[in-house]
Specification:
Elements lengths: L2 E2 L7 H7 L3 E2 L10 H15 L12 H14 L3 H22 L6 H14 L1 H8 L5 H23 L17 H4 L2 H4 L2 H20 L3 H27 L7 E7 L3 H11 L6 H5 L3 H23 L5 E4 L4 E4 L3 H15 L2 E9 L7 E8 L5 E6 L19 E4 L2 E5 L17 E7 L2 H18 L2 E7 L2 E5 L5 E6 L8 E6 L6 H5 L2 H19 L7
């Protein structure tokens, strides 16, 4: 059998529960039956399926699935145990894709396998590195490594934090989430890992002082984080005034269907559209764009001072873009609004055949920014990624900024000194609500209000503490302009200023732990 860590004999009840397995740090041997061992793996798998940042998440599940996966691995042979945990992680990734209707293309499956293979590394560290470092190392190695991996994947892999960011599962626990305004979203990952190792330490050592000491420490840390977050929500609430009225506009399903009939192809099939007659493309685009302009004027006359469209709402050929922007500028000037138009500009440039962009028109009709999506979805979008900083513009209603849909899944790129962040989104029904909840974390992290107008999903507005101010279900495809009142004053957060210092600290300590473990011999078993 494999080894596990324990320093004193457990109570007879725990002895009967676990059986017997040889302990890595010299404690008594406890024999564990394979059937009992694999029970922990199955429990870890089941809980993991509901802790993925998907449609069927259970917030508590994220705090328990690592407990059981670690327990299984600690009482299993390393190679077999890691292989089994890897399969659990892969199964979870595929289940995430299925429940959100992400096409299971070869690229998606390969991405899930790759991400799972990386995420299993903290479990490897807990199994092979932590036992050499004493009780503190046993407690901290896994959460440090888990945080490091989460940060590296969220920052440097093309899928960002769209899959696997544990903080997403806690979006309703605002008291807990306030910690990300100081330490960033990966700090939730650290806390989850810390709970897992503390629970396993108690599991191994029982209700002795040695067994309960880490539990008391971790419980105190978690209680402090939640208490401070609750105090922040209660005594330093996000301002409710002054506010500005913002409207989100979507193309209607009727206009999109009419455009498709004119084109003889889906308006989203950019390569097919690039080969069509210019007059036909212009006529189809006019059907969509005219409805957007009508709804924009309606929203302005309902009091909206800022109007923005969901991702790729407007359609036009590159040759027609100047005339389109002139029309949008005239509308903004006539109604005295800031108008952020989101457009798919058809081009002849392979392989993208289009640009995914937004343009902000000021109250005088001038162009204040042109922004191209920085992170096209791998495997689904062929746009050329935009470059340059995220735009910020001073207005009478605070500092406005803008990113597009998937850009919000890369936290490091959203640290801007804004009061209101506009996020045009373009999701599908299964993904829309979850993707909007993912974006809401950026508001808490950076201290601005975030307004996300989503095509065929869920449009929502959040204040800087993550409270939902307004929402609209857009899955029906035919929605009136969505209007919400949003605070115009943001706040400077610690995380916006220092960035991912906490995550880099975790990375440094992970490397130090590995180095220390390599210099120490494994504790002899008895």
């Amino acid at each position: 059998m494999s080894t596990d860590t324990i320093d004193s004999a457990p109570p007879s009840g725990i002895r009967r529960l676990l059986g017997s397995v040889r302990q890595a740090d010299g404690g008594p041997a406890l024999r564990l039956s394979p059937r009992r061992r694999y029970l922990w793996l199955v429990l870890g798998l089941i809980l993991h399926l509901f802790a993925l940042g998907g449609r069927w998440d259970v917030a508590l599940a994220v705090w328990f699935f690592p407990v059981f996966l670690l327990r299984f691995l600690r009482v299993s042979r390393p190679v077999r145990g890691l292989a089994a945990v890897l399969l659990v992680l892969i199964a979870g990734g595929l289940f995430w894709a299925v429940q959100l209707a992400v096409p299971l293309t070869l690229l998606v499956v390969a991405g899930v396998v790759f991400l799972s293979a990386v995420v299993v590394l903290p479990y490897l560290a807990d199994r092979l590195v932590a036992p050499r470092l004493g009780w503190a190392g046993r407690l901290l190695t896994f959460p440090l490594a888990l945080t490091t991996v989460a940060y590296l994947l969220g920052s440097f892999n093309p899928f960002g934090t769209a899959y696997g960011l544990l903080a997403v599962t806690q979006h309703e626990n605002l008291a807990l989430l306030q910690v990300i305004s100081v330490f960033g979203p990966y700090s939730i990952t650290f806390l989850v890992g810390l709970v897992a190792t503390a629970a396993n330490h108690f599991w191994e050592h029982g209700p002795s002082w040695r067994g309960t000491r880490p539990v008391i420490i971790v419980a105190a840390v978690l209680a402090t984080v939640i208490a401070l977050g609750q105090a922040w929500l209660a005594f330093v609430p996000a301002p409710s005034s002054p506010t500005v009225r913002i409207a989100g506009i979507n193309p209607s399903s009727a206009s999109l269907s009419a455009a498709e009939r004119i084109l003889g192809a889906a308006p989203t099939d950019l390569e097919a559209v690039s080969k069509l007659d210019m007059a036909k493309v212009r006529a189809a685009s006019e059907v969509i764009n005219s409805q957007l302009f009508v709804d924009t004027r309606k929203a302005a006359r309902s009091g909206a001072k800022i109007v923005f469209w969901s991702e790729n709402s407007a359609r036009m050929r590159a040759e027609d873009e100047p005339a389109f922007l002139a029309q949008a500028g005239a509308l903004a000037r006539e109604e005295g609004i800031y108008l952020n138009v989101a457009a798919n500009v058809y081009t002849h440039d392979a392989p993208a055949y289009g640009r995914d962009q937004t343009v902000l028109l000021g109250q005088d009709g001038r162009v204040l920014w042109t922004y191209q999506k920085h992170h096209p979805i791998p495997g689904l979008e062929r746009y050329v990624a935009g470059t340059g900083p995220v735009p910020v513009v001073d207005t009478p209603y605070g500092r406005l900024s803008n990113i597009i849909c998937y850009d919000a899944d890369f936290p490091a790129g959203t640290h801007v000194a804004a009061d209101i962040m506009l996020v045009p989104g373009g999701d599908w029904p299964e993904m829309g609500r979850i993707h909007t909840q993912m974006a809401s974390l950026r508001a808490v992290e950076n201290g601005y209000a975030l307004v996300r107008s989503d095509l065929n999903g869920s449009s929502q507005a959040f204040d800087r503490q993550g409270h939902v101010l307004s929402q609209q279900d857009t899955t029906t495809g035919d929605n009136q302009p969505w209007i919400t009142d949003v605070p115009t004053e943001g706040a400077v957060t610690v995380y916006r200023v220092i960035g991912d210092v906490f995550s880099w600290l975790c990375a440094a300590l992970t490397v130090a732990a590995i180095g220390s473990a390599l210099r120490r011999p494994r504790r002899k078993t008895t």
